[in-house]
Amino acid sequence: MIDRYTRPEMGHIFSLENKYAIWQEIEVLACESQAELGKIGISKDEAQWIRDHANFEKAKVDEIEEVTRHDVIAFLTNMKEYIDADVPEGDPKPSRWVHYGMTSSDLGDTALCYQLTQACDLIIDAKKSGRGIGSWDNFEDDNDGWKGGATSSDGASSEDMLSAVASMGDDELLGHDIWFVATGASDCDGAGMKAFLASHRDKLRGVFFINLESVGAGRLSVVTVEGEQQLLKGDRRIMNLVSKVCKSFHVDCGALEMPYAKTDAYAPLEASRRALTIAGVDGTRLACARTEDDLPHNVNPTNIATVSEVVTEVIRRS
Questions:
Q1: In 10 A of CB 310, how many CB atoms?
Q2: Which of 24, 99, 32, 31 is closest to 56 using CA atoms?
Q3: Which CA distances in Å does 81 have to 59, 85, 164, 207?
Q4: In Å, how far are 107, 159, 189, 221, 259 from 27, measured between CA atoms?
Q5: 46-71 pLDDT, tens digit each
Q6: How much is the pLDDT for 296?
Q7: Residues 225/257, Cβ–Cβ less than 8 Å
Q8: Which of 182, 199, 266, 275 is a plausible cystine mate for 209, CB 3.0–4.6 Å?
Q9: CA 211 to CA 265: how far, in whole Å?
């Protein structure tokens, strides 16, 4: 898609990131289906391992494709690296079942059909939203503010733009199960989050975690690296999506490495789940956290509203 002539939502549908994400889901579903059928030898435990560990990195896929000159082989090579990364030495590799009995066309054609379905859903949603406007009679004659459409830099404020973008396509939120979880016990090696993961393991297929830390103060940032003895990276796809949303909303978003602490995103990352921490940051630390400034009167309502809009839009676009 040509960025200049497409809506960001439609452009995302036909992006490589989305195509690869669909490819991954198709491959995982194929493994799970084969395990259910019980014909080729893959066990349900192996299919679950593949579900829990499957991932990819677009930049790495691109790098491999420079050698293989084949996009599907490049993608599968990278995905299998993630699946087998934590397999004990000498044990059979679960990735041997990925793409079993399939062709590149099985994968690519199925994914394209799903992308077209996503695009049609987006067009239908846009048409529904358009009916809400109906005609110019629904607009007031007086020029009391921005009503949408093209605008110059001295037209709509950043707040107007943020509100307008966030108001589009609320139907998209209905397609997600959204859980708001206050885990507690984050200072006890993430005991609250670990208990949540253990209690709801069977409900967490395909989920992603967005952890919010100190978002009432400081500069909005994503935590790119965290941990103590073992450092883990925040999920790159969520990170890229947050970056794109912030750019759309004209919201300044920084990045922070924390090779000295863990947030509640650490436990999901350690369990090979997709997770990322969005935080309010002051310098190299979480804003006001564990200090005498950690008081209600230091909470900035604008920060809270901005984070709420950004996270909501990330869920929409996911």
A1: 24
A2: 24
A3: 14, 6, 41, 21
A4: 8, 42, 34, 33, 34
A5: 999 999 999 999 999 999 999 999 99
A6: 85
A7: yes
A8: 275
A9: 6
The rounded percent of the chain whose pLDDT value lies above 90 is: 57
- d(CA 171, CA 173) in angstroms, rounded, equals 5
Residues 313, 318: Cα–Cα separation, whole Å = 8
Q: What CA–CA distance (Å, rounded) separates 284 from 127?
A: 46
- pTM for the model: 0.48
Q: What gap in Å lies between CA 132 and CA 137, rounded to an integer?
A: 12
94 vs 267: CA distance, rounded Å: 23
Quick: pLDDT tens for 105-119: 999 999 999 999 999
**CB neighbourhood size of 121 (10 A):** 15
Residue closest to 212 by CA, chosen among 186, 237, 188: 186
Confidence of residue 176 (pLDDT cuts 50, 70, 90): low
- Residue holding tokens 């650490």? 266
Return the structure tokens found at 207: 């989920």
pLDDT for position 134 = 43
Residue 254: beta bridge partners? 221
75, two tokens:
């993608």
3-state secondary structure of 109: helix
**Nearest CA among 296, 302, 293, 233 for reference residue 263:** 233
Give the residue from 198, 271, 213, 210 showing the smallest Cα distance to 237. 210
**Res 151 pLDDT > 50:** no
DSSP string, 248-294: HHT---EEEEETTB--TTHHHHHTT-EEEEEEEEETTEETTTTSTT-
How many CB atoms are closer than 10 A to CB 298? 13
Residue 62 neighbours by CB distance under 10 Å? 14
Residue whose tokens read 């993961």:
197
**What is the C-alpha to C-alpha distance for residues 256 and 286, in angstroms, rounded to an integer?**
9
